[in-house]
Amino acid sequence: MSKFLMPSLGADMESAILMEWLVKEGDRVSKGQIIAEVETSKGVIEIEVFEDGIVEKLLVKEESECKVGEPLAIIASDEKKPLHVEEKHESKQPVVQETKEEQIVSEPPKPTALHVEQEARLKISPAARKKAGETGADLSKFDPNDGVVQLSKIEAASTTEQEEPTKIESKSDTHIEKNSGMRQAIATAMSRSNAEIPHYYLSTSINMTPALKYLEELNKKRSIKDRILPVAILIRAVVLSLKEVPELNGFWQNNSHQISKEIHPGIAIALRKGGLITPALLNADIMTIDDTMNSLSDLITRTRGGKLRSTEMTSQTITITNLGDLGVESVFGVIYPPQLAVVGLGAIIDSPWAEGDALCVRKVMRATLAGDHRATDGRTGGVFLDRLNHYLQNPKELL
Amino acid sequence: MDNTITYREAVREAIRKAMSEDERVFLMGEDVGNYGGSYAVSRGLLDEFGRERIIDTPLSESAFTGAGIGAAMNGMRPIVEIMTVNFSLLALDQIINNAGSLLHMSGGQFNVPLVIRMATGVGNQLGAQHSHSLEGWLSYIVGVKVLTPATVQDAYDMIGLALSDPDPVLVFENSLLYNSKGSLDTKSTPIPIGKALVHRPGKDITILTYGINLFKALEAAETLAKDGIDAEVIDLRSLRPLDDETIMKSVAKTHRVVIVDDGWKSGSISAEIMARINEQAFYELDAPMARVCTLEVPLPYAKHLEDAAIVQVDKIIEMAKKVMVQS
């Protein structure tokens, strides 16, 4: 028997709302099965169970907020219980009762904790809440046990504070608050990145004409829906380059450089309503170009539909950001901690290009790399960009 | 010119003035002629205006209210007197299905310029069938206006306002107010229908009321003032339409509300007012709104039980203090 805990779906996540259980008590689950949907600041994520077993007890109600690490369910080990359940399928009463008793014994602190939380809810009058909103008074300063927070308390508090900055802050806040959850998540991660990670930046121009020509030839033979988009070859080229320069693929954790064997590039995907998510294209290293294309389409669709899985939110080993569609020529990314690097891909534009002694026009893309200088040096990054260039000059190798 | 007269005289003067100025105006109801009205409001009018304009009717509220509607639709300006609000229930069909509906049902072709006066109010040991305040309930009706004059000035002004309104207007005269005295300025411009009046400005708590309870609320406010609570007392004057603007303005100032209503609590005008404040001024509230209403019993006859059932000054004071310390 083990507890299924609220997973951390990002270095910056503190809690999430369990939106829906996709299993019920008594259900048999297997490793990797999606058993719940949780809503984080980044959207709705499907979360997977990490072992085989039987859902013995769901500890958390739907639509309740849970901290990372909080037990969500009890999963009974698969060994005896399933037999019981299956055998006594007709008269499952005893089994259910048995498990119930066990839970009561094993989970007494849970309900009390909930009660305390309910009792501790701050009561605040509407007028006081409105005033607090106007003055930017900090409601967390009030003790729920001191009774209702009324206008007089807020007024008293704001006369003691009365600072100009709070007022200005509350005014300028209004815009940001709309997607504050995600904005806050990005803000936290990126502040941490810039504070902790010494970045180095490299940039190189890549002649994309050979790759695009090759792609054109390839697509000619294919039906429209099977066609490969340039972004797929770019990702493929990054992944293959990472295989040769694995130092950039992994994490900097506990002051040590950890190289990941699998390559799960996080693909920066802009959401239509604003904000950005970088879900992982899982196991991109063992994909063909077609797999890459298909998986990418699927990933984008699910990201925008808010249907990502927890592993996709947590497994990224490197980030690829492509601002080419906006005509941006070079992107110098900020590394998402604890990753080691971010690859930036700019727009493919017609540029003057020297070949031998001749000057000609080619499709050119700027590829950049921001690396964590604690883990790697510019030289490693340089090798990576060189390999990236190599693959894009020799597109046949991408298949 | 100022002079002090009773509420009863003010109503009578208003009717007399209207009848003198406009020959389409007439009064009908039970005992309004020979007997001079059960509350003596129309005493003397029969001699002055004759049987064609001061009409005694049979005991049939539905019939004479219906007759009033017909007369109004045909260009007359009838004042129908219903002896007490309890009896108006017999005329509800006429009030709702005809008076309140005809303008809409005729596509705006027929107004019903009818005035219905009723005695209302609790107290005076009249028993359950003669002593209720159903004006909140009648305010539910679409198509009519509901006025509740509390002061002598309003008793006088509102008859004129009601008669000049093209639509049916119900005027609720509290029977316990008929003997009350006040100054009357017959030359002043009447405050229009649908406008509430701040009788006593205050900053700590709003007491919303109408009719006779205005005076209980004002008395309560004086006592509250001694305890350092500055109550604002508002006379709603009109229960339909309600003056949302004045109500919300006051709530935004005091952030606390007590509603004093002669009716029963459940489904009352006080419930409607609470709902509106919730809709329009929720974020102005600093404490839950409270009500002082008549207990939910048919009004008892016995004096001590009757007193216990109805709104009293000390109940208003108690409730206001409770709201003030609410936490």
Automatic annotation (TrEMBL), chain A:
Region feature Disordered, mapped onto this chain: 84-108, 155-179
The enzyme's E.C. designation = 2.3.1.-
Provide the Lipoyl-binding domain boundaries: 1-76
UniProt record similarity statement: Belongs to the 2-oxoacid dehydrogenase family.
Q: Tell me which PROSITE patterns the record gives.
A: BIOTINYL_LIPOYL, LIPOYL
Which cofactors are reported in the record for this sequence? (R)-lipoate
Q: Which organism is it from?
A: Candidatus Sulfurimonas baltica
InterPro entries reported in the protein's UniProt record: 2-oxoA_DH_lipoyl-BS, 2-oxoacid_DH_actylTfrase, Biotin_lipoyl, CAT-like_dom_sf, E2/Pdx1, Single_hybrid_motif
Annotated membrane-spanning segments are none
The chain's coiled-coil residues are none
Q: Where is the composition biased (Basic and acidic residues)?
A: 84-103, 164-179
Keywords recorded for this protein, A-Z? Acyltransferase, Lipoyl, Transferase
Kindly provide the name given to this protein in its UniProt entry.
Dihydrolipoamide acetyltransferase component of pyruvate dehydrogenase complex
Pfam families assigned to the protein according to its UniProt record, in alphabetical order: 2-oxoacid_dh, Biotin_lipoyl
Q: Which GO terms describe its biological process?
A: pyruvate decarboxylation to acetyl-CoA
Record's GO cellular component terms: pyruvate dehydrogenase complex
Q: Name one GO molecular function term.
A: acyltransferase activity
From TrEMBL, chain B:
Q: Which domain of life is it from?
A: Bacteria
What keywords were assigned to this record?
Oxidoreductase, Thiamine pyrophosphate
Q: What cofactor requirement does the entry state? A: thiamine diphosphate
Report the CDD domains cross-referenced here: TPP_PYR_E1-PDHc-beta_like (cd07036)
Q: Where is the Transketolase-like pyrimidine-binding domain?
A: 5-180
UniProt cross-references to Pfam families, sorted A to Z: Transket_pyr, Transketolase_C
GO terms of molecular function: oxidoreductase activity
Q: What is this protein called?
A: Alpha-ketoacid dehydrogenase subunit beta
**What is the organism of origin for this protein?**
Candidatus Sulfurimonas baltica
